[in-house]
Amino acid sequence: MISSSPSAVAVSAEQLGKVAGATLATAVVAGAATAVYARYYELTNFTVRHEALPVLPAGTPDFRILHISDMHMIPGQRTKRDFIHSLAALEPNLVINTGDNLSHMSGLPALMDALDPLFDFPGVYVPGSNCYFAPGKKNPFRYLVGPSKKPESEKVATLPTQEMHDAFDNRGWVDLINRYETLSIDGLRLEFSGVDDPHIGYDKHPGFAPTAFDTEPAPLVRLGVAHAPYLRTLNRFVADGAQAIFAGHTHGGQVCLPGGRALVSNCDLPPARAKGLSYQDGVPVHVSAGLGTSRYAQVRLFCPPEAIVVTLTSR
Ligand SMILES: [Fe+2]
């Protein structure tokens, strides 16, 4: 027979209270440490990721693409600027910039300073919503419950969009804003189809250039480029004949579970595809986790900011 005295019960309750207090204190300390890590370490833990896409005709030399996205530049981001400068040492054949370049109305000089060495390489670009509209204050965890949407009344073009695009153009980069383009770079003929940001409904697909794909003497590849990888966008690129697709926007989920597992993609792309390489009807889709965040949501967890070297190789 088991019995307990009142004092024994009292001691157990006291012990339970101590355990609960210690557990709560541990949770608070762990939460604070995680927040500090996410805010002050992960945010500037810049990485370079490498991917290979075997999409070129047999016998074609490798072609190196530097994919950058979601810089969200604000004045004074020295560490990010120095990292972007360092990317020039990768000597890409081409730079693809998939937008969301600014997060501050005065961020353009800092952006152009950061990109300065990369303008020495051929480049193409599409804008994201954060190339048009300055960010507003909001709960940084709001996006965890669904795609962010700006009310029509807040869609005021407060960022220097045209000035930025003119500056890109003057440095030789080519816009793919609802247009197709053909560029011959280092012996490879690249057919691009680009759209303005699908996240805000600005996308109008141009298809690819109506060239004689099979009769061109140079090796050819067709690439689709967009900021936000909505499924309608990916499906349309695939239908138009894209052989690979490049996008950003998702921030890789930004606040992820250990191991980098994303909870959200900020669009209708499944969160498991929010970063890295996946396939849409057999066509490789490359999504960047981006280099920055909104100035009002400066936190990353298990999702470091990244630039990606995508090497196109022969099939
Ligand atoms: Fe972004």
Can you tell me about this structure?
The chain has helices spanning 6-40, 78-86, 108-115, 161-170, 231-240, and strands at residues 47-56, 63-68, 94-97, 123-125, 174-175, 179-185, 188-194, 220-225, 244-247, 276-280, 283-287, 306-314. The protein has 315 residues and is of the alpha/beta class. It has one domain (41-314): Purple Acid Phosphatase, chain A, domain 2 (4-Layer Sandwich). It has a 6-stranded mixed β-sheet, covered by helices on one side. A hairpin with a 2-residue loop joins strand 10 (276-280) and strand 11 (283-287). The longest helix is centred in the N-terminal third of the chain and has 35 residues, at 6-40. The chain is globular. The protein starts with 5 loop residues before the first helix and ends with a strand. Residues 1-6 have low confidence and may be disordered.
Task: Using brief descriptors, characterize the structure shown.
single chain; 315 residues; alpha/beta; Purple Acid Phosphatase, chain A, domain 2; 6-stranded mixed sheet; 12 strands; globular; disordered N terminus; binds fe (ii) ion
CATH topology: Purple Acid Phosphatase, chain A, domain 2
* N-to-C span: 77 Å
Which homologous superfamily in CATH is the superfamily? Metallo-dependent phosphatases
Instruction: Supply the number of structural domains.
Output: 1
Count of discrete alpha- or pi-helical segments spanning 4 or more residues: 5
The proportion of strand residues reads 15-25%
Fraction of residues in helices?
10-25%
Low-confidence stretches: 1-6
CATH architecture identity: 4-Layer Sandwich
